[in-house]
Amino acid sequence: MEIIWAPWRLSYVSRVGKEDNGCFICKAAKEYPERAKENLVLYRGERALVILNKFPYNTGHLMVCPVRHTGDFTSLLTEEVVEINDLLKRALKALKRAYNPDGFNIGLNLGKASGGSVDTHIHYHVVPRWIGDTNFLPVVSGVKVIPQSLEETYETLKKCWE
Ligand SMILES: [Zn+2]
């Protein structure tokens, strides 16, 4: 899928080569709160954190991850599962308050064959959906337009976070 107007691509390209052997989720967790905005971290708890997706499918696309670096879902501790689910709930609240979507897709890609880009650190994708957001444009042309910049989304969701 081609994406029109993607200012975040620039920061992605300039990042490649510097930290591509590290894990961006661990880095974001470690650098919280000092570099929270730069790393797009909305919230970090003791065992889980919430990060905006740099390559969103829709405005408000975020990820809820354990702080601990693991790609093995079956290894998650009960305390981690509880905190991840609590942050999923709070993320939905913030997204509802900010954007009033008509629905959500929440999902995990586990393992190399799942189609996810990072399989070494678990992350739930949370994608707000609006009726009509899969309109003729992406279907016909393979083009998707993201109406709000990541910086604006970050500020909006930060204000709506409880
Ligand atoms: Zn990690």
From TrEMBL:
In alphabetical order, the GO MF annotations are:
nucleotide binding; nucleotidyltransferase activity
The UniProt record lists the HIT domain at 28-136
Q: Does the keyword Transferase apply?
A: yes
Keyword annotations of the record:
Nucleotide-binding, Nucleotidyltransferase, Transferase
Entry-linked CDD domains:
FHIT
Q: Where is the active site?
A: 123 (tele-amp-histidine intermediate)
InterPro entries reported in the protein's UniProt record = AP-4-A_phosphorylase (IPR052908), FHIT (IPR039383), HIT-like (IPR011146), HIT-like_sf (IPR036265)
Q: Kindly state the positions of the motif Histidine triad motif in this protein.
A: 121-125
Q: Which residues are noted in the entry as substrate-binding?
A: 53, 115-118, 125
Q: What is this protein called?
A: ATP adenylyltransferase
